[in-house]
Amino acid sequence: MDSLVVIIYLAAMVGFGVWGRFKAHNQEDFLVAGRRLGGLLYTGTMSAVVLGGASTIGGVGLGYTAGLSGMWLVLSIGLGIVALSLFFAPKIQKLEIYTVSQMLELRYGKGSRFVSGAIMTAYGLMISTTSTVAYATVFHALFDLNKVWSVLIGGGIVILYSMLGGMWSITLTDFVQFFIQTIGIFLIMLPLVLSKSGGISELFSSLPESHTSPVGIGWQAILGYILIYTLGLLIGQDIWQRVFTARSPGVARWGGFSAGVYCLLYAVAGALIGMAATKIVPGIEVQDDVFVAVVDASMNPVLGGIVLAAALAAMMSTASGSLMAASTVCRQDIVEPILARKDIVPDSVGGAGMDGVAADGAATGGSAASASGSSVSGSVSGSGAKSTLVRSLVRETGDEVRDSRIYLIVLGVVTLVLAMIMPSVVEALTVAYNLLVAGLFIPILGGLVFKRGTIVGVMAGMILGAVTTVVVMIVSGIYAESAIYLGLIASLVGYLVGSFASKPTPPEVMTAWKERINR
């Protein structure tokens, strides 16, 4: 019966993907749901994309081994969403772009987009791969499939509904997944396991103090979670791409804040379920096995199927969102800018400089100048330059939806291959998060709050932060907490020294940035 419930859920996801197909008419619909999500849809989709397998399966496992303080992993994710929504999301939403790397180019000028895009693509692939491995494990347990078939079937479903309607399909499926997660975790699993363990008062009185303390894991571990997950959530492409879907700065702020609060409650719920599981299924050695074990021990097949569907919902929503993020960045920030450099437009044609770009943007549905954020490489001197290299932040190909689907499918296949062959996805995920935070956090934050930052500072910060992190991980081990500390310090030093040692960002770039951010 639990398998039947999951099969119905998977069929529904494909159905919502088909529905999204009819809403995706152009690139803006496919990549950012037309930038018109209201508060309810936005809150649901933001919650679903950040609460994946690590938050659900991992959160319960940490509650099992560490007690109440096991909530800090998911709590750090919630804090990141709250901070992003209150302080930065309204400003980000106004940019009307598609990727984090495009923000760097708009703010600092050309030069950093390829490197930052490569880091973001790797990060998205690792998040998607980790989620794929997680839900493949559930498929194996439910249907007795081997790893290869579990990955192919589960991953195939995610690729299918994501490819059909892009962000519209993902938004619709994410909202349903958010609904299922809420019912499965908060309304079924949490009350049942607390009741079966004797109630919350009995549970807390029977556990050692280290398991009932909110800081039992220690401040060093808590700081590590905050540095990796809170800072990572502030700059992740998968998160920013959801901010771009909001129809207004107000939706981006308060819808995101609501999602962050939901994450904080989810963190506490997962820890409490894990604590209760120590009484229901004691003696489990592998913490990731706790979730399924406590479901089997405390629920009938129908309720168990709903809860397992909730776990699958968490994993698949994160996988689809991360896959969309990786394919968007790969196309828009790595491949297409290279191809776009072939377009040369004489100054005398259709007006010089920025006017020519604006006219081109209007001729292509407005995406080049506003949604895609056109920019001009090169300059027009007082005596007049002979030609200007026009580089739209998104090269117009005539069928952007088709092209976006192709990139999503290709990177989806890469994700499936990685999920089948990668020996340790946890190590890969740790490397991706460390490189993301150490390499990009300072340049991105600096672009939003520090006026003197320059492209030289960005490149110095990215390179020093990433290299320092890699060296420390090689010397001290992948899980060394000093890797992220030293990487952030090196990135900050490189960013500040490079910025102050170089000429300020050109006035025309800063003027265009201010106009866009203040509109």
Automatic annotation (TrEMBL):
Family of this protein: Belongs to the sodium:solute symporter (SSF) (TC 2.A.21) family.
Regions that span the bilayer: 6-22, 42-64, 70-90, 111-136, 148-168, 175-194, 214-236, 257-278, 290-314, 406-425, 431-450, 457-478, 484-501
Any single Pfam family the record assigns to this protein: SSF
Keywords tagged on the record: Membrane, Transmembrane, Transmembrane helix, Transport
Compartment(s) where it occurs, according to its Swiss-Prot or TrEMBL record: Membrane
Major subcellular location class: membrane
A GO term, aspect molecular function: transmembrane transporter activity
PANTHER family: SODIUM-SOLUTE SYMPORTER-RELATED (PTHR48086:SF7), SODIUM/PROLINE SYMPORTER-RELATED (PTHR48086)
InterPro entries registered for this protein in UniProt: Na/Glc_symporter_sf (IPR038377), Na/solute_symporter (IPR001734), Sodium:Solute_Symporter (IPR050277)
GO cellular component: plasma membrane
Name of this chain's protein: Na+/solute symporter
Membrane topology annotation: Multi-pass membrane protein
